[in-house]
Amino acid sequence: MRETGTLHLRARTATELSGGERARVLLARALAVGANALIVDEPLASLDPGHQLEVMALLAARAKAGALVVVILHDLAIAARFCDRLLLLDGGRLVADGAPDAVLTDTALARVYGIIAHRGTVAGAPLIVPLHRSH
3-state DSSP helix/strand/coil percent for the chain, to nearest 5? Predict the structure, then answer.
């Protein structure tokens, strides 16, 4: 609970938690097991931007410490910033596999998401901003 910043919530029941608090408590529960592998599906849902960054930094630290961390995300900028390897799926099929800059290409973004996006960097961090549909 310390790692996820939820220690102060320990006496509250699940029905008293906001969606973001509940998500962070569930992550704390998963981390408490101490498993060498962690699969998290949309761990940033219901979290404010600050907590999103904290959760991704925590998961990245776990991966750097040797754990297998698989994260399902729809936020392209967060995926590009925190993930070493991306698997891009479309309709359950693998479209691309590799480093974020090799996977999140203009062609792949248009094909899978039907978007044109601005891609760049800010302070060394990758930035992907969907601009419009690519019709």
Answer: 40, 30, 30
Look at residue 135 and tell me whether its pLDDT is greater than 80.
Answer: no
Contact 69, 86 (CB under 8 A): no
How many residues are there in the chain? 135
Q: Of all helices (H) and strands (E), which one includes residue 111?
A: helix 106-113
CA angle at 40 for the pair 34 and 42, rounded to the nearest 5°:
150
85 is a domain residue: no
Residue with tokens 């910043």: 5
71: left (phi over 0), alpha (psi -120 to 50) or beta: beta
What's the whole-model pTM score?
0.85
106 inside domain = no
For the chain, the domain total comes to 1
